[in-house]
Amino acid sequence: MTATSDADAPEEDEPEKGPLRRCIATREVQPKERMIRFVLGPGREVVPDLTGKLPGRGMWLSARSDVLETALSRGAFNRAARGQVTLPSDLRARIEDGLRGRVRDLLGLARRAGQAVSGWQAAREWLQAGRAGLLVQAADGSPAERARFGGRDLPAVLPLSAAELGGVFGRDHAVHVVVAPGRLADAIRAEAERLAGFAGTSPGDA
């Protein structure tokens, strides 16, 4: 008899309650903020549910590109769904694009709520006044410039390009954005870290 590993064991119906979820590929249990939820569409197509709110039984995956590849190669979605599913050829790109959109939307909410500013001068003023909870910097900005700007104990993430950050703040580009402490800063950091896991980049300079 051949032994069955935990990763290949049949899925169990686990209630989607509480802060933890089990990855269908690795079987590791992690906070749901570090994972991606998937559901089945009407044609049994695997759909990434980045907000975790779509109806249906969720299939959870650690927010890393290598774990996604493991899930695809081992048929983890078929096993979790108890049957054949349709996997979009651009699934990884859909996830990355969706997470970038999530970061942009949350930054936009923070800007409109007066909880975020961009630009060297304004961001430095917030930093020096102790109003900073999170530093968001352009992924394609100068590493030396990012290092000169950042606070020693302030978490930093690099989720978007300078053009993308600028678009959120009505500018051609932005390299430095400071977000006030609070739920929006926490949510932006979580989405940036999920994006980094799928994009294969460092989440930031925390």
UniProtKB/TrEMBL annotation:
Residues 1-22 are annotated as: Disordered. It holds the Pfam family YlxR. Residues 21-96 form the YlxR domain. NCBIfam families: PRK09190.1. This is RNA-binding protein. It comes from Roseomonas alba.
